[in-house]
Structure formats: C-alpha cells, structure tokens
From TrEMBL, chain A:
Protein name: Lipoprotein
Record has Transmembrane as a keyword: yes
Domain of life from the UniProt record: Bacteria
Keyword Membrane: yes
Sorted UniProt keywords: Membrane, Transmembrane, Transmembrane helix
Bilayer-spanning residue ranges: 37-55
UniProtKB/TrEMBL annotation, chain B:
EC number: 1.20.9.1
Species lineage: Bacteria, Bacillati, Bacillota, Bacilli, Bacillales
Organism whose genome encodes this protein: Paenibacillus plantiphilus
Protein name stated in the entry: Arsenite oxidase subunit AioB
TM helices/strands, residue ranges: 36-56
EC class (word): oxidoreductase
Assigned keywords, A-Z: 2Fe-2S, Disulfide bond, Iron, Iron-sulfur, Membrane, Metal-binding, Oxidoreductase, Transmembrane, Transmembrane helix
Lineage top rank: taxon: Bacteria
Gene from which the chain derives: aioB
Annotated Rieske domain residues: 70-167
GO function term, MF aspect, one: arsenate reductase (azurin) activity
Gene3D superfamilies named among the record's database cross-references: Rieske [2Fe-2S] iron-sulphur domain (2.102.10.10)
Length: 62, 175
C-alpha cells in the first residue's frame, strides 16, 4: 500500500491557521478592534468544517 | 532472549505496557492522528466563541460606554513627581495617577499589557515599570518602550476642578 501523507500535511496546515486565528482574535480583542475579532472568530469556526472535510476525503479515498 | 526468564517477576521488559495485547493499541495510526487533528480544530473553533460573543456585544451598542466621574485625590495631596494608585472605573480596575509637572497629570490603568502585573511608577527613572518581566512604559503616552509589552496602557481621562482631580472616562485605542 502506498502511503499518502497529504491529509496529515493539510490538517497540520489547518491547525496552524487555527493557532494564528486564535492568537489574532485575542490580540484584536485587547486592542478593542471588535470587527477584526469577529472576522478571525468566523475564520476559526470555518476551519473546523474544512478540517472535517479534508479528513473525510482522505478516509474515503481508496 | 533468555527463555528461562519467561513468567518471572519482574518482567524482562523495559516498559510498563507489557499487559497490553490488543493489536495496534499502542500505535497511533495515520487515521487516528487525523481524527485528533480534526478534534483539535474543533476545540480551537469553540475557544474563540466567547471572544466573538463579547466583541459582538460591544459592537451591538455598548461601544460608547458611560463612565461616571469619580474623585481621585486633591491636587495638594500629590507632590510633583509622585504617583498614587486608585481604582477606576470598577473597584477592581487598578490605576495609577502620576503628577509629572505642576499642572501635568497622567493616569493609566496599570495592569501591564503583557500579563496583567501591576505597573509601578519609578520616580528615579521617570518611567512606569512592570516588575514581572521588566516592561517599561512612557508616562507621557502610556506607550511601551522596553520589555515584552506591545500595547500601550489604557489612558484614563482626567479633569481638574477646584483643586480636585477627577477621572471621567477611559480612552479607547485609536483605530
């Protein structure tokens, strides 16, 4: 069986983006830039379905 | 491996998981790892929800907070170059009032913008100093000049009325 680490790499990248978005959310909150907080919060929320989608696609690949 | 050792106590193994016999129980395969990553993404998503909720609340109409004026001290009680602590706007929001000159007063909320240690006025250095990680703030603007803090201290708006210093609000960061 040939291994593919594409899923792992993609999910690592998603997790990296998660860390960045969380950090930016908290920073923007303390700078009282509430629009930016909402933007990064929504981005962070979108990343979860994206991660799930990547996982499902890699799982179903035969 | 010495067959005679089998069944002896202690086991001739260098780990404490010798009683695990299930297949792959000790291995984290690619799929479980990916599941773990998806779970972590979910945790990150949930963790930003409170921040987003508070931000939405602020945007929904509380952006112009109403502050009540509060007396800090009498002008005569504070010498030039001295500082005093007070609490504004809430009784747990500690703040620092500094008399820089005869008619020059500055006040900041003195929770360090790095990790919230109380910031002190150092008369000798003429700076506000955070003792925890040696963060230094400029008393004229509240901007950080050294150490880990990157964000200026929130300034408190002051008014002077008949020899009394009043706090009337907290300045928002300029956006």
């Amino acid at each position: 069986m040939k291994r593919s680490y594409r899923g792992v790499l993609l999910l690592s990248f998603v997790l990296f983006l998660n860390i960045v978005c969380t950090q930016q959310t908290v920073n923007a909150y303390y700078y009282e830039k509430y629009e930016t907080v909402l933007l990064f919060c929504v981005l962070n929320l979108i990343l979860f379905p994206l991660a799930f989608w990547i996982y499902k696609r890699e799982r179903d690949v035969k | 491996m010495d067959q005679g050792q089998k069944g002896n106590i202690p086991f001739d193994e260098d780990n404490y998981t010798h009683n695990i016999h299930k297949d792959n129980e000790r291995s984290l395969d690619r799929r479980s790892f990916m599941k773990l990553m998806v779970g972590a993404a979910g945790v990150f998503a949930v963790s930003t929800l409170p921040w987003g909720a508070i931000a939405a609340k602020e945007l929904a109409g509380f952006s112009n907070k109403k502050y009540t004026a509060a007396k800090i001290t009498d002008v005569s009680d504070l010498k030039v170059g001295e500082a005093m602590e007070f609490a504004y706007p809430g009784k747990h929001d500690s703040a620092l009032l500094i008399r820089l000159g005869e008619d020059e007063f500055k006040a900041y909320q003195n929770a360090c913008t790095h990790l919230k240690c109380p910031v002190f006025w150092s008369k000798e250095q003429g700076e506000m100093v955070c003792p925890c990680h040696h963060g230094v703030f400029d008393p004229k603007t509240g901007a950080p000049t050294a150490g880990p803090p990157r964000r200026p201290l929130p300034e408190i708006i002051l008014e002077r009325e008949q020899g009394v210093i009043l706090a009337t609000g907290v300045k928002r960061y300029e956006t």
